[in-house]
Amino acid sequence: MNSISPSAAQYVGKVMQDELLESRRQQPLERQGSFGLRLPQTADPTREATGEPDEVDKLKAKLMSAWNNVKYGWTVKSKTSFSKVSPVTILGLSYLLNSEDEIERFRLAFVSRIWLTYRKEFPQLEGSTWTTDCGWGCMLRSGQMLLAQGLLVHLLPRDWAWPDAQHLTDVDFEVFRPRSPARAGGVPIPSFGTPRGSSSPETFLPRDRISKCRKKSPESVRDRQAEPIHHRLVMWFGDQPSAPFGIHQLVEIGKSSGKKAGDWYGPSIVAHILRKAVARTTAVHSLSLYVAQDCTVYKDDVVSLCEPSHGETPSDPSTQAWKSVIILVPVRLGGESLNPSYIECVKNILKLECCIGIIGGKPKHSLYFIGFQDEQLLYLDPHYCQPVVDVSQVNFPLESFHCSSPKKMPFNRMDPSCTIGFYAKNKKDFESLCSAVTEVFVPSGPVIINGEVSHLYLRRRP
């Protein structure tokens, strides 16, 4: 009989308990680190009876919203430096930035990821006065990006690229020629981006040549034809109550976990919120979402989730009777800080083609990790407040949903609490995923740090 090992048992509920305790400790504080200004709230029996916020709460919400909109509504643009001799990994694909073509491939791969950030002036969240998630919704936004990547590979070819990515000319990074193999510094060579506001692009490859090359390629025609799917996918994350994966739905689902608008959300709780959001929507077909239990993926449970019910037939008879699956694994890779022994493990995870990213970040500062170069993680940052976009409009603009600024941070600044995402399109892919993940995790064996298990088990139910 297979069961959870004693070391795994020590992990039971630990991540979610830590997040709940952390959020309770933080509620009385007037300032909550990177999450912005938080004001203490007082109970009002009248308001609780009616379920409506009182005038004091409305004023508090307006003050907090104004403060956070200013705090996150602007950013200092700085170029991120990349080595020319070390490969850059993005979600299982590698790029060596030593040629114009390779730099263009990297640029398209990065810009084509869905970027979801703080928004302001959206419809009021039910039961609150909030019309923005600035200052508190960054983990929800990171979770949205993780799910969006899973939906991208579910609905579009793996090598899909946003056809209009070349229009974002202010891609803020530079490629460096190292002084020596041992040192990643060096002299910058011209980047293909243009400074914001510049009228004279400085690029490796002229834009007209890039556009012509892409127009001639079959992939470019295919990607252009896929734009309606791209628009529909982004619409699912719109900041309106009807969007199945929008902030309104996620906050509403979070109430069952004791969360409300304005609270701090941890990566484990967000994983379960996403699971419930996928389960309740009818917008996405042939997709399930599974959340690992205590660092354990029960293979039989995944099979039961993905195989059709008795008498059910697949919508497409040419495909196998198997739902695609997103697997989310909440883990804690250390005690108070990331254990250095896990750095190679995280790198190997991000090298897997089945990986759709990691949500975590720096302490109290959520980020969505999509790759790495050398000893630095590559990420998308939700901490930028943008005006709401009306996704109900036909051909609404997509530019604010794609990022033109790659950012990096050292591995040792990564918060140990995170959630890892994987995607398998069919049963064969799931078996390959299990084999690949086992190779990444098993060599080091189970590791217990301060009573917490940081190891992924693949088991069958007894």
What does this structure look like?
With 462 residues, the chain is of the alpha+beta class. It has 14 helices and 18 strands. The protein has helices spanning 6-9, 14-26, 45-50, 55-72, 100-111, 138-155, 207-216, 218-225, 227-236, 247-254, 267-280, 299-306, 343-350, 427-441, and strands at residues 80-83, 88-90, 93-95, 119-120, 173-180, 183-189, 287-291, 296-298, 324-332, 355-362, 365-373, 376-380, 386-387, 407-410, 417-424, 448-449, 452-453, 457-459. Strands 2, 3, 7, 9, 10, 11, 12, 14 and 15 form a 9-stranded mixed beta sheet that branches. The chain is globular. Mean pLDDT is 77; it is low at 1-17, 20-50, 180-215 and 444-454.
Brief digest:
With 462 residues, this protein is α+β, with helices and mostly antiparallel strands. The protein has helices at 6-9, 14-26, 45-50, 55-72, 100-111, 138-155, 207-216, 218-225, 227-236, 247-254, 267-280, 299-306, 343-350, 427-441; strands at 80-83, 88-90, 93-95, 119-120, 173-180, 183-189, 287-291, 296-298, 324-332, 355-362, 365-373, 376-380, 386-387, 407-410, 417-424, 448-449, 452-453, 457-459.
